[in-house]
Design a protein that fits this description.
Blueprint: E1 2-9, H1 25-34, E2 39-43, H2 49-62, E3 65-70, H3 78-88, E4 93-95, H4 104-121, E5 125-128, H5 138-147, E6 153-155, H6 158-164, H7 172-182, E7 185-190, H8 208-228, E8 232-238, H9 258-275
Parallel strand pairs: 1-2, 1-8, 2-3, 3-4, 4-5, 5-6, 6-7, 7-8
Helix pairs in contact: 1-2, 3-4, 8-9
Protein name: Xylose isomerase-like TIM barrel domain-containing protein
Organism: Roseobacter litoralis (strain ATCC 49566 / DSM 6996 / JCM 21268 / NBRC 15278 / OCh 149)
Length: about 280
Amino acid sequence: MRRLQVYQSLWSMQPHDASGEVLPLDRVAGMVADAGYAGLAIDLGAADVEVAHAVRPHLEREGLTPLIVAFPRSVESLRETLIMAQDFGAPYVNVVGQVFPLTVEGAIPIIRKWIEMSDQIGMPVHFETHRNCITNDLFATLSMLDAIPEMRLAADLSHYMVDREFKLPLAKWERDLMSRCLARADSFQGRIASRQQIQLQIDFPQHAKWVTLFQEFWLEGLADWRVRNAQGDVVFLCELGPPEYAMTGGDGREMSNRWEEALKIKAMTERIWADLGGNT
């Protein structure tokens, strides 16, 4: 059986909406579980290991699976995170590598070393398509994928929309570049971007064309994943960040409700999955 597992992000929950209220970890876990999420991602770029250990009992109480998002600043430092993730029972580690040489040739041995660590410890790694890290640039990432067949992605294409400043409609060759990322993705992330903004308000009518584009990306990615996998779980992480990812007005308050938007993205993805055949 193939299952879609939709996760929420701890980073997205602090604060979780425009009120600015930072909820205690037990309430965060309760809200996420009550909303029907399967797990909670712990972002070690926005929190530390102490927070990860503090939230763990609340996740266990609520039946939520933890996912570790790592930002290793050295090649060797990922090892400790992989071991921690294994102890937590995470399905994989989402890697946003903070070691990033200027050339693809310099990046290849680093990626290979991290994959080697992953194999040794028995904890899968997905390299997130993310700015300001080893996969910063779309073209460089595609070159790494060509050089390293075993490299798997966590596809957050919002970063590459801004990175390349793609305008609509995408040219065929531009769409094909994104498709190459989706074909190598073993997990996906939910954020909707334009060519200028990393995170759009999904209900604003002027953003509808971008919402449609990202729904098409998610459909393509999940459909391709199903072709490649006869069984197993695929994680879709809703990761709408607080300010300054979230745009704010002149009063400093967010212009939309991220908690409600995340639930809408969750519902979009679940509909796409159901249309593809659901948990079969």
